[in-house]
Amino acid sequence: MGLKCGNCGEVSEKWQYLRLMDSAPLKGGRGSATMVQKCKLCSRESSIDILSQTIKPYNAEDSEKFKTIVEFECRGLEPVDFQPQAGFAAEGAESGTPFNDINLLEKDWNDYDEKTKESVGIYEVTHKFVKC
């Protein structure tokens, strides 16, 4: 994920993966966030927190539509780019077959569902960020 400093505008590609279970303490004992980053240019500490209660699945009926699948609380950071990688999971819409550890780095993925005897896949992954 590319992030932009809200103070000086510096863009960092450093944070490629945000894990839901990790939490870093905020300076001054103000709680914690999924990620805390200090800007290389202005030295300002900023944070982004994944609001886990907002995570929603993207289903077959959502195909070719934008859908909010997660919300972030951003303090001094703004997401500007997203590069999906490994760690995604899917389930066969008709069969319920689990497909784990899907890598979307190439924005496409395909496999074969033995239960339905059909090819399955995720194609042309796109994203957009919406400010609230």
From TrEMBL:
* Gene Ontology MF: a single term: zinc ion binding
Task: Supply the alphabetized keyword list.
Answer: Metal-binding, Zinc
Concerning its family, UniProt says: Belongs to the UPF0587 family.
Query: What's the protein here called?
Result: CXXC motif containing zinc binding protein
Organism, as annotated: Chloebia gouldiae (Gouldian finch)
